[in-house]
Amino acid sequence: MQVESALRFESPVELFARVFRALRPRTPLPEISVQFRSYADANSQVRLENGRLQVRVTDLLQGAPAPVLEALAFLLLGKLFRRPVPRIYSHRYRLYLNRRDVRRSLHLVRQIRGRKILAGPKGRTCDLDEIFEELNIRHFDGLLARPALSWSARPSRCTLGHYDPSHNAIIISRLLDSPDVPGVAVEYVLFHEMLHLRFPVEYRGARRRVHTPEFHKAEQAFPRLPEAKLALRRLRG
Question: For the domain that residue 133 is a member of, what is the CATH number?
């Protein structure tokens, strides 16, 4: 009860100071500044510069329970000082972010504050709208509502495609928009992202599962799957 009371009445600066002392007991306490910022995601940052510890926390956590802010403090400072942090803190933080009301707030913040630059579905060699409709009829009985489709601004090799639920958009790497890339590779990447429409992310406690067993099973039904994966491995080098 004493610990809970201390947490309840600590200011953010006092909280980060206490966690700093716990991780670096022999290091003089620096000047600490904690600001809540209007980020477009659940991002928080910490910097130690010229004897000043600057902490910037997403304003989504401004009304969070004190134990959640304590968990964040341990995670941020543990990463900054490369110190191991008990798993209870990461578990507690993920558990809070996975709450339905927090996810709803985060979803709205991404929609309002986030910037999504879409280059459009028509590429030099491929039209994502056409490919989407063909895959939709072939694999989903034409029942998937079409999201915004676009090629990426840059030809990324690391991220060949991603689905952004906040903006209901599928982005495919411009690297695939080439006559040298087999059509089956482009179809497979788009098909994979379309499965995210069919099988949304699952949240269970502190766990977040992007690819569910149902997702993996449906993905295996893609024809010429080994050929598509081989083409993508070659493309990535």
Answer: 3.30.2010.10
Distance, in Å, from the CA atom of 79 to the CA atom of 165, rounded to the nearest integer, reads 29
Query: Hey, which residues does 32 pair with through a beta bridge?
Result: 53
In the numeric block, which tokens belong to residue 152? 């990426």
Name which of 137, 232, 136 is nearest 189 in CA terms.
232
pLDDT at 80 over 70: yes
What is the arithmetic mean of pLDDT over 32-52? 93
pTM for this predicted structure? 0.71
Query: In the chain, how many domains are there?
Result: 2
Boundary-marking domain end, from 113, 143, 171: 113
CATH number of the domain residue 94 falls in: 3.30.2010
236 dihedral zone (left: phi>0; alpha: psi -120 to 50; beta) = alpha
Neighbours of 17 (CB within 10 A): 19
188 contacts: CB under 8 Å, gap ≥ 6: 222, 224, 225, 228, 229, 232
